[in-house]
Fold these 4 entries.
Entry 1:
Amino acid sequence: MLVTGGVRSGKSRHAESLLEGQPVVTYVAPGPTVDEDPDPDWAARLAAHRLRRPPHWRTLESRDLAAALSPDGAVIVDCLGTWLTALLDRTEAWDQPSEQVRSRVTTALDVAVETLAARPGDAGPVVLVTNEVGLGVVPEHRSGRLFRDLLGEVNQRMAAASDEVHLVVAGRVLRL
């Protein structure tokens, strides 16, 4: 399942609620850690997310999306936007030609989609959280346009691989 929405729309809380009652849940955090990004606002956001999780949920901080989708039990990935940012940061892709960057992202995404498709049905549900960034103005800077375009492609591919997509707006859920 893919859960999408804007910043602070309630998408993470909704995604977490979909896994209530699951005996085994792996929470995949593919974005920057507090050690990597000492921004106090980011640290506060991570802390708030941690406090909401049940104590039996296992947290996995990993940018290897395909490997993160492999464990048995339910999996929640929060979120694909931070995964994409980490991928672009790690490969220093922000200033590289768009087609070169797109190729690199597509390769990583292909592996993740294949892993998701091959996941046994009895392994547990997978909930992917992502940001909806294409509804606003065209970003002024190239990096913003690159991110918006690439995340749009990531979201389309993951939506196609998902059995259901939920759009969260102002805490309200629309099943697409």
Entry 2:
Amino acid sequence: MGGAFFASYLIGLRDGLEAALVVSILVTVLARAGRGDGLLPLWAGVAAAVVCAAALGVVLTYVATSLLSGVRLELFEAVTSLIAVTMVTWMIFWMRSSARTIKSEMTGKLTTALGLGRAAVAGLAFIAVIREGVEMVLLVFAAAQAASETVAPLLGMIAGVVTAVLLGWLMYAAVARVNLGRLFTWTGALLVLVAAGIIKYAVHGFQVAGLLPGSTTVAYDMSGVIEPTSWYGTLLAATINITASATVLEVTAWLAYAAIVLVLFFRPAPKRTPATA
């Protein structure tokens, strides 16, 4: 349970913190503009996004547990895993490039939305939160399938979101000074490793379904060293999907994704040169 809980906690913390940061910016802009009338539609948009994200989780769980089995289930889980990894990879790099300008961007969008009416404010809040919610649900669902657990990932995600909301409130109240750049950097790096594990799980699903070769070509077998039911075996499998045995293609996919994305993620941002007349 510990490994599955930690992986989902990290996902909930990261995505929840991004959503909380955006919402706190929107609330601050409304407060400074004296537009208290925009708070109700803003929170309505946030609530609608949370409900839609939760509904997506219920649908995914129902489909996986009630409608599918065997090869179809393997394919479903593999495809949802790839979608989740694609979304989290895009979001990690988007947050890295937008961290410095997100406040001005959201302020501009909210100013425009206020001019269009309450529905526009609710729509802006909904869009800002739903993308984080969908990504979080897909990632936690994929992590839960890889860990063959349901309760621990759900509890971990909820705990991560609660922590993120608390940090968001502290940031808004100016009680705590959080180095967001450093926080997003290290949580992003850890999420890359979690995503690499989900890629490995997706490859395993495609191999079981017969769509990828090499299901019998084992890269390593450490079952005599790593006990799958031990605390460390569960932790490794549930967080970054390091299992007692794996195929060559699974290991290749894990290493390739982790290496390429981490190099790009930690690569220094290009310096902007001032435009010359």
Entry 3:
Amino acid sequence: MKRFKTVDEFIDGCESWHEELKRLREILLSTELEETVKWGAPCYTYQGKNLVGIGAFKSYFGLWFFQGGLLSDPEGVLINAQDGKTKAMRQWRFNSKKEIKSRTIKAYVKEGIRLQIEGHEIKPERGKPLTVPPELKQALARNKTASIAFEGLSQGKQREYADYITDAKRDATKASRIEKIVPMIANGQGLNDKYR
């Protein structure tokens, strides 16, 4: 996925949904939120904390509420795109411009701001044991430099690599991912260092 430096680049770089994304942006900019770009996509913050982001895919575009799991969701529009994995983030998917209701979006943003001011937050689980998948264990066993470097990484970076392999569904995907990451590990890099 391409990472953009500005919101305009993001909107122009999307294959479709240009007018719809501009409309979502316009609505969010009419609130108290500040616009920025994080992870190459538009992100809107309140007092420096992420509140909502904009995204687009082939079949839909939408909003991502970082603490959406706390929102009351009176319209029943929020979904957990990674059920069982994501605790806080929720998506609001749209399929057409006519589905965009400014007043409703602003109400969700207002509730999100209120919850943030009150200090409500779903925090990620800490202390969960690290499980290195067997495919990664085998690859590290064959590369002493990578194995030593892996042990020197923080547990968070080790977990990113482990999850990256575990999340692959097909064996071929796991193999290609391992081929990609072993040199990164050997160099002491974290999987997502270039985005930090």
Entry 4:
Amino acid sequence: MLLSNLLIGLREGLEAALVVSILVAFLVRTERRAALPLVWAGVTAAVLLSVGVGAVLTFTAANLSFRAQEGFGGSASIVAVVFVTGMIFWMRRTARTIATELRGKLSEALNIGPVAVVLMAFLAVGREGLETAVFFFSSVQSAGGGTTAPLAGFLVGIAIAVVLAWLLYRGAVRVNLTRFFTVTGALLVFVAAGVLGYGFHDLQEAGVLPGLHTLAFDVSGVLPEDSWYGTLLKGIFNYSAQTTVIQAVAWAGYVAIVLPLFLAPQRKPAAAAQPSTTSA
């Protein structure tokens, strides 16, 4: 699970770090450094909330019966897929305009007052944090309850994201963010498909969905999960050697629908209508 969680940590971490760097740069360049503590207060609150949500989810699941735990984990996995799907499409749509939008919102918040600045920073970073917390929990569930590999992947990805965002802020490196988010978004489609399939499998084990023993294929003899290549596939795509029909349909259906939509050329916004100059 290390590689898939590293990708999630890198993607979510870079989004959050870019948001923070845009806000900080705006305040520094407009000589409003006095508002920096307010932004950092909002960012800190968002991080603490995200950690708290992840802890609550993990603690709650640990105190449930097996079937209830599987049902809870399966539901959380589906919610995580919804979050990640929305995130990759949102960033694809706003990658070129996010800086302008954030500067505009922060400028409005500064005019309103300190509380508005804290709240704006909290909301801007909190979205990525909550998505990461839910996805981290679903990764822990699919890893069999062990938190070491998922946590290590997330932390490494977030650390790389912070360093990359700092280098971008300092102007030391240049990255085509639109291309970066397109490539990572396409990879995340396959990661999310694996999480979705595993979530449906959890619901089958919980007895919520039927067909637990109706397999679409069993390749454990050819591609065992404990082999190095099986471990690699499981770590990136949540590969399962014994895949149920519902799992396979969920995985294939998600990729078949979401990937073409994500890679489809974006429509350019229609030009604004010219105001009429005809007098009454």
